[in-house]
Amino acid sequence: MITAADHRVIVPMEGFVQSFNISVAGALCFYQMYIQRRSLLGRQGDLSEDEQKLLKAVYAMRTLDSAVDILKASS
């Protein structure tokens, strides 16, 4: 699996922890990326307001039964 991986990441651990399960390790890595990105950009993401609205609309259309009604009410 190591040879098939694109990158290798080491998550430092302190205290009595011997290892993290994959979901905890992933959450810790994503949180650190979020903090670094927010620090560099000065905001949470790099999408414009219009791009954020479009992304939310696409998500709603794909996941909610009442997406059309919700989108009509918000516009």
Primary descriptors:
57% helix, 75 residues, 2 domains, mainly alpha
Describe the structure.
By secondary structure, this protein is mainly alpha-helical. The chain has two domains: 1-44, no CATH class; 45-75, no CATH class. It has helices spanning 22-41, 49-63, 67-74. The longest helix is centred in the middle third of the chain and has 20 residues, at 22-41. The model has no long low-confidence stretch (mean pLDDT 84).
Approximate strand percentage: under 5%
DSSP helix fraction? 55-70%
Q: What's the overall geometry?
A: elongated
The low-pLDDT segments are none
Number of domains: 2
H/E order of the elements?
HHH
Helices, by number, come to 3
What is the arithmetic mean of pLDDT? Answer: 84
What would you call the structural class? mainly alpha
| Rg calc | 19 Å
Distance between the termini: 48 Å
| Major sheet details | none
**Count of strand segments:** 0
